[in-house]
Amino acid sequence: MELHGIGASPLRKEDWPLLRGEGTFIADFKRPGMVHALVVRSPHAHARFSHIDGSAALQAPGVIDLITAAELPDRGRPIPTRMFKNESANRFLQKPLADGEVRYSGEPVAVLIAESRYLAEDAAELLSIDYEPLEVVLDADAGAVAGHLVVERGDIEAAFAQADEVIKEEFRIQRHAATPLETRGLVAQFDAGLQTLTVWGAAKIPHVNRRILAQLLGWDESRIRLVELDVGGGFGARGEFYPEDFLIPFAAMRVGRPVVWIEDREESLRAMNHSREQIHRVELALKADGTFLGLKDTFVNNTGAYVRTHGMTVPGLSVSMLPGPYVWPAYRGEYRSVLTNKTPCGTYRSPGRFEVNFVRERLIDIAANRLGIDKVEIRRRNFIHEFPHDTGTLFDEHPVVYDSGDYALLLDKALEAFDYPGLKRWRAQRSPEGFKRGLGIAFFVEKAGPAEREYARVELSGSGDVTVYTGTASLGQGMETTLAQVCSTHLGLPF
Asked: How many C-beta atoms lie closer than 10 Å to residue 99's C-beta?
């Protein structure tokens, strides 16, 4: 019997149905009597409004309901943060619908329910909203501070006082937006008899989203069921509770029919989380031989118009992960997370590591050039060699400790695999086209296993079939394959 257990690389179980076109994504999912939701969004980055006239829209063909902030419980309860909670940020949490003022282009102001998306689009043009445009703030340096944190370890002033060389630089990281092939979408159905709610869709954190939805509705979690379908890409931006994650279930409760909402690409770019916009003003103190003495970074994180579920996660991770794989006798990291009239920010592909990895590694390159030291050698001299290593920073109130590693060995293997001496010779030669040739090197430390443990339940039937139940959502990581490999190894079953 051939086993494909832990350590093997079998073909993934979940791929074949997707390759055959047999996957079920949110746009494929239908419920009897399903109606369509359209989220009406602000065209202004900042404006005041006092009235939404929906009388004409409600008379349009196929229109069933119009929902504004006035129809929501308490006119909409603020969506709480999930990680890196900051009391000062609670004043800037987003509500599901704007109530009298919009603060970014794309902010939801109403929801139209109709028999089709096309009828809802037509009816939306009949809405009358008396917007009064206000001053717009886009520059992060001019934004109001939503959160502030300082992390310090060692005597940073003494480190810089004894330095032979101090490198000062400013780095600006531009905004990024995730664009998964499948945009966001939800189907929600309310059972009036059982007083329960079922929500289908792609949610990276279904348990967290269920808890937040219950909190906003004032319900017990047991009355809500979230079902994860196939997912057409995540990239971090799905790990969020968005306004629509409340609005669509609420709409299903109001109209008494299943409600579907599928985000179009324009909505995705305006309303789905942006990320990464930061300005770093950073200083590196070191000896003449390249030994690091201290690192100081003061950066501004452009959070956008509101603090969303992960609004403080990216700056929090940035300040905790900046030290990287190096020994810093002294470190000081400080961030200001500020509000502007841009789309709110959250997580996107290696949040908080992508940003500071660029800052740190570019700074080290500049230092190497200034001191005339090879870029590889200056890094080798400053690697962490003794483990476990406490960085002196925190990940959501938990100490960031590297438990093990051999960075010098990894470096040697990489240099050998890429033929670093050969690449240096290649770089020194002028290309036939006259182009300059670049050669870069950078090191990246990824966090792993910082969250609580995740449990699974395994049932073995009399016929020998095994069923595994897990609360872990899959966004392409291959959970079916991974859990099948675990069963193959520990139960001795064929893959």
From this structure: 15
Query: Is residue 303 classed exposed, middle or buried when 0-12, 13-18 and 19+ CB atoms within 10 A define those classes?
Result: buried
CATH 3.30.365.10 given to domain 140-177+274-428: yes
Read off the pLDDT of each residue in 76-102 and give the average, rounded to a whole number. Answer: 91
Q: What's the rounded Cα separation, in Å, for the pair 62 and 309? A: 35
Dist CA 438 CA 447 (whole Å): 29
82 three-state secondary structure = coil
pLDDT digits (tens, 9 = 90+) for 225-264: 999 899 888 888 888 999 999 999 999 999 999 999 999 9
How many C-beta neighbours within 10 Å does residue 71 have? 16
For the chain, the residue count is 495
For residue 149, give the nearest of 312, 360, 357, 326 by alpha carbon: 312
What are the boundaries of each domain within the chain?
Answer: 1-24+452-495, 140-177+274-428
Smallest Cα–Cα separation from 4: which of 493, 464, 474, 456?
493
Burial of 336 (0-12, 13-18, 19+ CB in 10 A): buried
Between 213-217, 333-337, 425-429, the lowest mean confidence (pLDDT) is in 425-429
Which residues, in sequence order, are bridge partners of residue 281? 170, 298
